[in-house]
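Notes from the 1:1 (GR / supervisor)

We went over the backlog. Supervisor wanted to see one worked example end to end before approving the batch request, so GR pasted a single chain during the call. The sequence is below; no edits were made to it. Supervisor asked that the structure be written out right there so they could see what the output format looks like.
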Amino acid sequence: MKKIKRALSLGVISIIFSSYISAQTSNINMELIEASIAGNFQNVRSLIADGANVNSLLVIDDGTQRTALMAASDGGFFDIAVYLISKGALINTRTKGGTTALMFASRNGNIDLVTLLSHCFNSIDILELRKSPA
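Structure output shown during the call:
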């Protein structure tokens, strides 16, 4: 009986700890998106160094979805967008409505970001063509 109680208590502790870690991860990812929205480059770098996921797609305060790259593109923060891409941000991620970082940059007239993201999309297309069988 002691073994069962111990196993159960460890299982419960494990579930609670996993939930805590999940909540902490979600918080740091939301902080990364918020820092990208605000254009806070120093905070973006710090959060990524602390383990934030550059590809996390979360619902923000207005009910829409964003990744950090989408947020930076929407706000016109070129340096942050370049940094996020250098850290592995996926440029072709889409919201439920189908919007990409390129679309956010385009609708706000962020020409430098549109150029950067278009170039990245084209590079992906070329790489995909090289992978496909002839």
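Supervisor's comment: The chain has one domain: 2-131.
Batch request approved.
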